[in-house]
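[Automated response] Your request has been received and processed.

Submitted sequence:
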Amino acid sequence: MVNFLPRHIALVIWGTSNMRTGGDDIAQAMWLWGCEPVWEDASGRVVDFRILPLTLLGRPRVDVLLRVSGLFRDAFGETMRLLATIPKRLAELDEPLEMNAVRAAYPPRKRATGERRSEQTRASRRACLRVFSSGPGCYGTGLLPLIDAGNWNRRATWPRFFASGAATLTAVTASPRNSRSCYARASRKSRWFHQNQDNREHDILDSDDYFQFQGGLRATVEALRGSAPATYHGDSSRPDQPKVRTLREELVRVIRSRVLNPRWLEAMRRHGYKGAFEMAATVDYLFGYSATTRLVDDHHFEEVARSLLLDPEQRMFFQRHNPAALLEAAERLLEAGARGLWRSPQPATIIELEELLLDTQGQLE
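Generated structure:
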């Protein structure tokens, strides 16, 4: 089992999910580090952490990078500081490097004086930074406005924009001016990436936040490493039966179970204007995942185009209740083809989408 554990993993942690679960994601990070919480008896709050010895842990410690949301940063300031302290403590342990990936990333101490000692101290401090969030007052990643603007290139734009966090990525224990380089240095080592979802009231094609965090982080690591990290999506909606799927498997599951489900389409049609908006938003988020991860296959685009837009009943519904949403969704699918995200679209499908686009534009005019 030890041989199959990752040495470096990146986790996305959101505020609302940890409020609902009581800190599942925090516990996951601490477990990977090989620590356990220390509780205050009177209040039941976590006030410190305890490092488990390797003899009790029975496995290597994992080097964990945390990308937390703006809400988590604002709501759990003390927890942020607690999590930021753990890698510093782990780096100082006298443990074999193969059993402590955090210590292995820590620069060796060298005899130095004066300015060299100051530089070594700064380098050691930066080597332990593992908890990052958006800059003060910033939330999300800012990738959605970039997609809407259309002025982007997948390999060049996504990583640079995500790494800057739409403002600055602020490490809890570092000044903002150092955060981007520190984040790049820490994320470059991540070969695994994981995010949990604690409920089934929504899915990854229900909100732009999922592709912004998952897709943005994956694209960043891919650009820095030259290869994409193994990306996983955790499902803890049933705490007694948690499941972990690859991000591709989760995308396919959502597309099959909801997006192409006739019962969902029928339910959305009952909601008129808002239902049409939700369908177009789903196409938008599917495009976002494709733009940042390239995990959406051609046949997914084909089936979405046929079921959501080109189906006669769907087309009539959109044109009656929300032609603007139909126009936006058709433009997104055509853009996917133009950018090579939809690699080999059926010529007939593209022609029908173009005709649909022209007809809808005429209707709106």
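Summary generated for your ticket: The CA atoms of residues 99 and 327 lie 55 Å apart. Residues 2-246 form one domain.
If you did not submit this request, please reply to this message.
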